[in-house]
Design goal:
By secondary structure, the protein is α+β, with helices and mostly antiparallel strands. It has one domain. Helix content is about 20%, strand content about 30%. It has one helix and four strands, in the order βββαβ. The protein has a four-stranded antiparallel beta sheet with strand order 1-2-3-4, covered by helices on one side. A hairpin with a 6-residue loop joins strand 2 and strand 3. It is globular. It starts with a strand and ends with a strand. The relative contact order is 0.23.
């Protein structure tokens, strides 16, 4: 499962901040990352849809739930 949300910036030149969450099956494998780079978000979505895992290295992910 891949989830992306955005916070709008204050101007058209500031696209805002994007939140990317990824869950690899079980709650203990639920990760979250933030970026200001819309290209990274598009890359994550395309990679996820293609079944690739390399896109995960683009982000500094944080595990949301501990075991």
């Amino acid at each position: 499962m891949l989830l992306m949300t955005t916070e709008r910036g204050l101007s058209l030149r500031d696209p805002g901040r994007y939140q990317v969450e990824y869950r690899d099956g079980v709650p203990s494998e639920h990760y979250q990352a933030f970026t200001n780079d819309p290209a990274a978000v598009v890359g994550a979505l395309v990679g996820w849809a293609a079944g690739l895992t390399a896109w995960r290295r683009t982000f500094d992910r944080v595990r949301l739930f501990a075991d």
